[in-house]
Each structure stands twice: as structure tokens, then as C-alpha cells.
Amino acid sequence: MSGAPLLAAFRQSLGEAWAGGAGALLPLGFLGGTAVLVPLGIGTDAATLKAVGPGILWVALALASLVTLERIFQADAEDGTLDLWLQAGAPVSALAAAKTLAHWLSAGLPLALFSPVLALMFQAEASPALLVNAGLYALGSLAFFFWGGVGAALSATVRRGGLLISLIALPLYVPTAVFGALAMSGGPGSTGAPLFLAASTLFACAVAPYAMSAALRLAAD
Amino acid sequence: MWSYFANPHKFLRLSDWLAPAFYAVGTLCIAWGLWQGLWVVPKDEYQGGDIMRVMFIHVPAAWLAMASYSALAVASFIWFVWRHELADIAAKSIAPLGAVWTAICLATGSIWGKPTWGTWWQWNDARMMSVLFLFFLFLGYMALRASMDTRQKAARAGAILAMVGAINVPLIKFSVDMVESIHQGASVITADGPKMAAVYLTPLLISALGHSLFFGGLVMTSMRTEIRERRIARLRAASLEGG
After folding, report:
1. pTM of the full structure
2. Which of B36-45, B90-99, B144-153, B173-182 has the lowest mean pLDDT?
3. Do residues B134 and B102 make contact, with C-beta atoms less than 8 angstroms apart?
4. What is the spatial distance between Cα A172 and Cα A169, in angstroms, rounded to a whole number?
5. What mean pLDDT comes out for the span B180-197?
6. Chain B, 122-151: which have a CB under 8 Å from a chain A CB?
7. How far apart (Å, rounded) are the C-alpha atoms in residues A6 and A92?
């Protein structure tokens, strides 16, 4: 087997994400909009915002992954691309992983890179720690996209699959959200938390492609 | 071994008398456990006085919440590997019942928690959060099955999700364990044996047995209904073809 189908799927996904008009700006806009709603909803007290800021960004990242994932496999199942992949004999798990990775690059990573700006708006001190946090957001959001991808693959043939993806993926998001929030809390147990975050992300990257592959074969039937 | 149990006719014959037996013994055990729990055993002031009597429902429900998700995962695995139709029927029947017992566990836990800990719900409590996510796993499983357009697809999608959920349960449990807990530690199954006084332990175990048997009876009845529904669908399809 050659790497050609993998590369094609990867480039196709990136192209779709960038060709959608606003490219990476659209998810950024979503993240910004979600984050801006929070001070309006819970009040503008600086101490409160400083305390909840890192957690709000985790929630916003999780939501951003959920809303952008809805169509990741659905379009392929509808227009026959999925059948062509299966015929090409490429390992479906690798294809699914490549697509998810491309999706994360266009809709997950930019959000993580943008996070220090939002953190400043939530009254965080300007320090190199914000860049470390951006790395943690990037690491954690990768797990969000892989588990969300499982939900997206399972509901590829379902109309209004977005709501279903949220319900399926939320329990799987728990370890990432817990370790991520713990790593940024600075409280007891926070020193080892980034390692646990990395471990749970690696676990997602190792397991999710096989689940996606099984789900995509089902969608192609 | 699976193939022996996979025969729907054998299952129908077996469950014909086993399900009523489970109901009868289960009801007796639950009734005895409740009578002991509500009227006979002394109250424990440390656990909140009379409110601790909710334990005789709460603990069996918690046990069944975990046991039913394990059963769902095992049934899904058996169906996914060997494609025994009965395993899928079992998985489909277990999910809503498991969700109900998980909800009972959450509700009774809240009722117990309010007077003793002063809160209906504690977000950083590991056990509460684990059970809550178990509840969501059940809901997601049922929603996914319901949204598939054929029975075969529902079975496959459900099995994949149940297995993905099952391998994530230890990780979810571990992650929420990192946050400290106000819930008491284990007191029935520990390395040194039960730490609970026998006067509480015996009714508790009988009650758990009763809930398990009653649950098993409900699962069997639900499976019998599903088997007959599938048979009706098959007969209807055949009559349309012949018609």
C-alpha cells in the first residue's frame, strides 16, 4: 500500500477547512464568541473571571471541537468518497486519523495558539506560563478531536448528528478536561497533571482511529 | 460455550420459568432487606441518623449501575466478535434498565447527601462524577441506537460505542479520583474483608442480591419481548413477499 490515499485525504480535509470562506477564522470566531458570553453571563468581577478563565477556555475548546466535527465524515459518506477509500485498500484507521489530524490543524491548533489573548482578557497575568498553557490546550484539544471523531464517525449517516456527537463524546472528554484544568490550577497534584494529560491524549490517538475505522465501515454499508 | 446459550429457542424455554423465579426471589429479598433496613437495624448517628437507611437502596443501585454497564460491554463484545443475535438483544435490553438503576443511585445518593454532607451535589466528588458519566454513557448508547435506520446498523454502532466507553471507564474513574473525595471509602469489598457491622451487612447483601435478581428478570422479559418483535417483523416481511 502506498501513502497516496492518506496524503490525499489529509490534503482534502485541510483544503475543505481552508476553502470554507473564513478558514481558521471561523472556529476562532466561535471560540471568541463563546468566551465573550461568559463574563456577560456570570458577571464581570475580575477575581471570578481570573479563577474561571482557564476552565472556560477548556469548555470553549471542547464545544468548538464538537461543532466543527459534525461534517467531518458525513460528507464523505454521502458523496461516495468513503466507498472509494475502502476500495483503495488503504487502512481506514490511518485515513480516519489523517482526516482528524487535518481537522485539528485547521480548527483546534489555531484556537490553542489564540488562547493567551483570551487568557489576558480573563485577567491572567502576562507571563511565559500563558504559552505553556497554550501548549497544554493544544495537547488536550487533540484528544477532544480524536474522541469527537469517534462520535462523528458513528453518527456519519445520522441526520442532525451534531447533538448525538455531543452526547456520545462528552463522557470521553472527561479525563482531558480534568487533567487539563488540574494542570493549570497550580493546586495539589498539578505537577504531574501535564504528564497525565499527555498520556490520555496518546491513549486517544492510539485507540480512537480503530473505533473510527469500525464505525466508518458501518457507515459505508 | 457461547453457541449453546446463543440459541433463542433455548433462551425462551429457559427464561420461561427462570424470569418469574428471579422476580419472586428478587422481590422477597428486596422486601426483607427493606423491612430490616427500615424497621429492624439500629440507626447510625455518624451516617446521619435515620437517613442512612436509604443505604439499602443506594448501595444495591450503585452496584447494579456498574454491573449493568459491564454486562452491556461484555454483551456488545460477544455480539461484535461472534455475531450471536441474542447478545445484541441482551445489550439492547440492558441499556435502559441500567440507566434507570444508575438514576436511582444518583437520586438516592443526593437524598442521603443533603442532610449528612449539606449538599445535594458535589462537583469535585469522584464517585458522584463517575456514576454521572456512567449515566451519560447509557444515554449516549440508547440515543445512538435509536438514531440508526436498521437493526443491524444499530447493533454495530451500539457495540462499537459500548466497547469504546468500557475501555474509557477506568481512565474516567482514575481522572476523577485525582480530585479529592468527600464520599466515604469502600466498606464492603476491601482487602481486609467487610468493615461494616454484620447487622447492616447482611440486609445490605440480601438487598443487593434481590435487586440483581429483579434486574435479571426484567432483562429476560425485555429480551423475550425483543425476540418476539423480531419474529413478528420477519413473519410480516415473509407474508409481504408471498402476498
Report:
1. 0.87
2. B173-182
3. yes
4. 5
5. 62
6. 129, 133, 136-137, 139-140, 143-144, 147-149
7. 9
